[in-house]
Amino acid sequence: MAWISGLRRWVSAAAAVSLAVTAVALIVALAAAANARGASRQLSARLVPAAAASGVLLDQYTAQMVSLRDYVTSARPAALAPFTQAAALIPDQQDGVASLVAGYAVMPGQLAAAEAAQRVWLADIAGPQLAAMARGDAGRARVLQADIPVTRPYSLAVRSRMVDLQAQITQTQREVTTRLIGAQRGLLAALAGVCVVVAVIAVGGVVVVRRWLLAPFTALRRAAESVAAGEFGTRVPAVGPAELADLGRATERMRTRLVAALAEAERAEDSFRGLFESSPDALVTVAGDGTIAMVNAHAERMFGYTKTELAGQPVEILVPEVVRQAHPRHTDGYYADPASWPMGENLQRTAVDKDGREFPIEASLSSLPAEAGQVVSISIRDVSERLAAQAERERLRAEADRERFERRLQQSQRLESLGQLVGGVAHDFNNLLNVIGGYTEFIAEQVTTLAAGTGGGGRLSLTLLIANPSFLSEARANPSLRLE
Q1: What gap in Å lies between CA 429 and CA 432, rounded to an integer?
Q2: Domain count, the chain
Q3: Which of 32, 41, 35, 37 has its CA nearest to residue 187?
Q4: In whole angstroms, how far apart are CA 39 and each of 47, 136, 158?
Q5: pLDDT, tens digit, for every residue of 99-156?
Q6: Do 181 and 51 reside in the same domain of the chain?
């Protein structure tokens, strides 16, 4: 194992030297990069915009001068529009240039001198000419403008101040550019040093790998390739330096656990397939793109397709034509957010088999996360017989209800007839009772009268009187009869 310790010593020494050289090179590179970044930022953020802004400002000064000359020459108010526009833009442009050149030694003073020269030109040259034009004295304005020895120094002062400012900006750009180039050279030198260190490390690494590590790595690679090819019985050797040996032992433990996990996964898959195939319902698994991924034997019998025919087909093949176009919109929404989509258990739908026969089904959906997105499992149950039995029960229940109603109707009709009969009998009997009662009251009155007339001398049979009412007249004619 001495060669292993020697390898470690050489590797440690080489690593220390490489780290030291790399650290120095990185420090130099960072310093150069910081300098280059500062110079580049100064150029891009201040000097280049300052040069452009100063040029625009000079153009605006020039536009005022040209516009004033045209206006005085032509006496057209429209010729003064550039003058007015430039006057409105110049203050903001001056502020912008001032903010860009702030902090430099000379440029702020040059900008202030240019602004002062512009103000003097406005007061001494532009002001009198504009005042004359405002009074309508165009001749006076032209005379003032034609006095070149007086007007030219003012305009030259403005231009010269601005040219000095632009020249100073250009000079500063050259200085910053020189500093940037120097920083880039330092950065390139540091990077070259890092590259040399990397090259040395690479060469040393190649030598070490070829001499001490290639054979152990080759053994480990061959064992890993064998395992990856499906030969899980291949043992991973623990060879080479201690680190590689530890890697081999760890890989061997991983292989043994992988073999156990694969065996368990195969058992779980066999159990799942057994449950999947033995399900009393038709099961259809739909991938995230809306195609059928897997079906069980019950689904084959229900729809008349084989598994091969259904694999890869859109799930709409099992949907009637009338709703087939709208079906992808619902499935896309369900795949996007299954939790919030109103689809779930015991959905009443209509399906179509291979022969085009439509039949009612009851479907239950459940989403499962997968590597390629959501996978939806659909449990389908043919409810044709159940619906037919339910319809038959409803029909029988309706017939029973109708029969009960008819019996109740007949019973009510019989009770109504009986009530009418009893009412008629009672009415007739009541008539008889009224007649009897009338005769009784009449007889009682007559008897009372006869009794008072006879004074109790004759005896008259009440029974005979009731049985023969005409006898009453005889009783009146013969007072000697006695009422008994």
Answers
A1: 5
A2: 3
A3: 32
A4: 10, 56, 31
A5: 988 888 888 998 899 889 899 998 999 899 899 888 888 888 888 888 889 889 988 9
A6: yes
